[in-house]
């Protein structure tokens, strides 16, 4: 067991740090959260900056440890988040890289890396959330096109995306996992309607996407027809492992800030609150170690281990505990949306739901890791 | 970075698991529970010969010359097997008390207001004068209570903060218990049939088991990392998580076992009771939380 980094990894870290210190002061001001075109331009601009400096494919080409260092250092330096590049870099891109043809890789991968194109995800539907295989958006063949009708939900960046990685049902008669196909749909195709979805935090972070006889070339299909479920599982495994590195680093910083605010405003004198913050310190230290453990496992085995669900269960709960503790420190100020952490507290409520609810994650842990029988 | 067990560490863990499986199996566990207060001296010497107590002593002094990560692995196995005896106390005394390293001498240790295994010990670390026996909740851990600090001409010293190594080894034992509790619960959930199916097919049971694993694996990352860094904050964090994983894990294990879990015959209660005993050892959760809170202010 070794927690130290190799000389090459340390050199990567040092070079990255130096580069970040040089480049971050020159970035344009962060756009208003409601300004979608501004956000798109900002996020793509950052990806272009990474590309020019040789960091663009850190999510794909680099070792898990290098990726961990990259995410840790960019978070610590306050660099922009992956933002609108998320689906391209972490979902659609890896899928195309693994399952796409030579032509498809040439068409789509470079624009993702260069920060030219934005992707969004069309997986979930109003009646297919945790039970994704229940999706009903239909696609019929019409010559060299598919004609797609249905609706998708929880789609981030749909307003500004160029492409949508879309799951459609191509064979309603087949067993449900075997009638699904993966398509790359251009978002400017006729018949695509995007309606922003306001979350409980007040902002429109997601959208609903309505599809009315949208024509998608058959050439945009990745993998075989009706093999989309397997193709998608390749995508989903990329979400585990290093997915929360930056967030754990950020949570530890928030916790330190929280302790200092508590110390100033008198909340620190309450031993119960102090001990609560102390326990959160233990919690996030452990989550950082668990991240390092999972990354080492991924590095050793070549694939992200089963630790992803274990991590997500613990982390999503811990994040909510952190912002509940923040509310305890803030007192009445916790009701003021203009105070720091108040919006974060609201956002944290999605963590035990998004990307597999905690209940589904527990089923996964129990069935796939512990080997308990399937059944309800 | 390679935060995984090395081949040597895997072998050490497997060797200890093999020894304990052979010398302290389920039948031996039940026999020990039926004869409280007696320590198997033959097994103790075998542990000594296997290097359990001398693990961290330099090879020049007859030790094995390994470090805290290896110690944590063998203590985890001891916890998993529910091995009785003052393991940490004797391990910690290996350099100072003749015979402790080889398992010839059993060493007890005054810890807070309690001493485990005082009557059976050959030597005691700390001042055990005036100790009185307690009817111990754990049939596998005899306890004495030591009077608190009293003013007077020869005041008993107020105990300082717990030895970090004792804290970490206790956490490692708790991790072993948390792991074992999860295994026992899963075994039972797979085989116990109600309503025509294994109870492990029910989500309510499944989710209890999943949470046991999540707590154990989070604690594992914290305990192993603390063994690598030896940093006080890492050790305190490891202890808090391992205590939680062991105490809540054994409780949930009992719940999964239903009525059978409430019987003396089932071994589940022995794991729970030992987890309670260890949670009292080497400093309290409150001290750990206060220390980690202060650490946030830097």
UniProtKB/TrEMBL annotation, chain A:
Residues 6-116 form the Acyl-CoA dehydrogenase/oxidase N-terminal domain. Residues 226-370 form the Acyl-CoA dehydrogenase/oxidase C-terminal domain. Its cofactor is FAD. Keywords: FAD, Flavoprotein, Oxidoreductase. Residues 120-213 form the Acyl-CoA oxidase/dehydrogenase middle domain. GO terms for molecular function: flavin adenine dinucleotide binding; oxidoreductase activity, acting on the CH-CH group of donors. One of its GO terms (cellular component) is plasma membrane. It comes from the Bacteria. Transmembrane segments: none annotated. The keyword Hydrolase does not apply. Pfam families: Acyl-CoA_dh_1, Acyl-CoA_dh_M, Acyl-CoA_dh_N. Belongs to the acyl-CoA dehydrogenase family. This is Acyl-CoA dehydrogenase.
UniProtKB/TrEMBL annotation, chain B:
Belongs to the acyl-CoA dehydrogenase family. InterPro entries: AcylCo_DH-like_C, AcylCo_DH/oxidase_C, AcylCoA_DH/ox_N, AcylCoA_DH/ox_N_sf, AcylCoA_DH/oxidase_NM_dom_sf, Rhodanese-like_dom. Its cofactor is FAD. Residues 85-126 form the Rhodanese domain. One of its GO terms (molecular function) is flavin adenine dinucleotide binding. The gene is fadE33. Pfam families: Acyl-CoA_dh_1, Acyl-CoA_dh_N. Keywords: FAD, Flavoprotein, Oxidoreductase. This is Acyl-CoA dehydrogenase. Transmembrane segments: none annotated. It comes from Streptomyces fuscichromogenes. SUPFAM superfamilies: Acyl-CoA dehydrogenase C-terminal domain-like, Acyl-CoA dehydrogenase NM domain-like.
């Amino acid at each position: 067991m070794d927690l130290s980094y190799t000389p090459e990894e340390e050199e990567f870290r040092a070079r990255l740090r130096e580069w970040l210190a040089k480049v971050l002061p020159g970035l344009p001001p962060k756009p208003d959260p409601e300004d979608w075109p501004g956000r798109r331009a900002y996020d793509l601009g950052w990806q272009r900056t990474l590309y020019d400096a040789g960091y663009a494919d850190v999510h794909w080409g680099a070792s898990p440890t290098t990726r961990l260092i990259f995410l840790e250092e960019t978070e610590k330096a306050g660099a922009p988040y992956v933002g609108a590049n998320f689906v391209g870099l972490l979902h659609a891109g890896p899928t195309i890289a693994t399952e796409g043809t030579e032509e498809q890789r040439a068409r789509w991968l470079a624009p993702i890396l260069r920060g030219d194109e934005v992707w969004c995800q069309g997986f979930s539907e109003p009646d297919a959330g945790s039970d994704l295989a229940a999706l009903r958006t239909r696609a019929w063949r019409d010559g060299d096109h598919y004609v797609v009708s249905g609706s998708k939900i929880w789609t981030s960046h749909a307003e500004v995306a160029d492409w949508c990685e879309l799951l459609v049902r191509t064979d309603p008669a087949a067993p449900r996992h075997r009638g699904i196909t993966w398509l790359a749909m251009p978002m400017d195709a006729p018949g695509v309607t995007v309606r922003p979805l306001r979350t409980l935090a007040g902002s429109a972070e997601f959208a609903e996407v309505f599809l009315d006889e949208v024509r998608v070339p058959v050439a945009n299909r990745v993998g075989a027809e009706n093999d989309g479920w397997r193709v998608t599982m390749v995508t989903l495994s990329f979400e585990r492992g290093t997915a929360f590195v930056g967030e754990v680093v950020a949570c530890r910083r928030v916790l330190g800030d929280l302790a200092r605010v508590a110390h100033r405003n008198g909340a620190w004198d309450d031993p119960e609150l102090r001990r609560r913050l102390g326990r959160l310190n233990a919690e996030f230290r452990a989550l950082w170690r668990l991240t390092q453990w999972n990354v080492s496992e991924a590095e050793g085995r070549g694939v992200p281990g089963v630790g992803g669900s274990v991590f997500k269960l613990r982390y999503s709960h811990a994040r909510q505990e952190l912002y509940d503790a923040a509310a305890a420190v803030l007192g009445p100020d916790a009701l003021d949306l203009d105070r720091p952490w108040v919006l974060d507290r609201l956002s944290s409520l999605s963590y035990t739901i998004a990307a597999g609810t905690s209940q589904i994650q527990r089923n996964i842990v129990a069935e796939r890791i512990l080997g308990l029988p399937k059944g309800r | 970075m390679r935060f995984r067990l090395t081949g040597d560490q895997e072998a050490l863990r497997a060797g200890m698991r093999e020894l304990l499986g052979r010398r302290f199996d389920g039948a031996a566990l039940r026999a020990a529970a039926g004869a409280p207060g007696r320590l198997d001296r033959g097994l103790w010497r075998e542990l000594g010969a296997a290097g359990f107590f001398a693990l961290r002593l330099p090879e020049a002094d007859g030790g094995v010359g390994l470090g805290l990560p290896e110690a944590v692995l063998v203590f985890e196995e001891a916890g998993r097997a529910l091995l009785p005896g003052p393991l940490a106390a004797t391990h910690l005394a290996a350099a100072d008390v003749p015979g402790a390293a080889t398992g010839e001498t059993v060493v007890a240790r005054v810890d807070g207001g309690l001493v485990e295994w005082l009557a059976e010990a050959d030597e005691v670390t700390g001042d055990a004068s005036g100790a009185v026996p307690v009817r111990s909740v754990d049939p596998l851990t005899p306890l004495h209570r030591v009077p608190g600090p009293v003013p007077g001409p020869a005041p008993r010293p107020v105990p300082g903060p717990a030895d970090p190594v004792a804290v970490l080894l206790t956490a490692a034992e708790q991790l072993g218990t948390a792991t074992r509790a999860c295994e026992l619960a899963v075994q039972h959930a797979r085989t116990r049939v109600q309503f025509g199916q294994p109870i492990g097919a029910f989500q309510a049971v499944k989710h209890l088991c999943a949470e046991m694993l999540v707590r154990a694996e989070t604690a594992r990352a914290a305990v192993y990392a603390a063994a690598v860094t030896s940093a006080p904050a890492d050790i305190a964090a490891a202890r808090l998580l391992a205590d939680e994983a062991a105490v809540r894990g054994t409780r949930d294990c009992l719940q999964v076992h239903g009525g059978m879990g409430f019987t003396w015959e089932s071994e589940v209660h022995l794991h729970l009771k030992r987890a309670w005993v260890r949670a009292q050892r080497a400093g309290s959760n409150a001290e750990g939380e206060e220390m980690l809170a202060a650490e946030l202010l830097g």
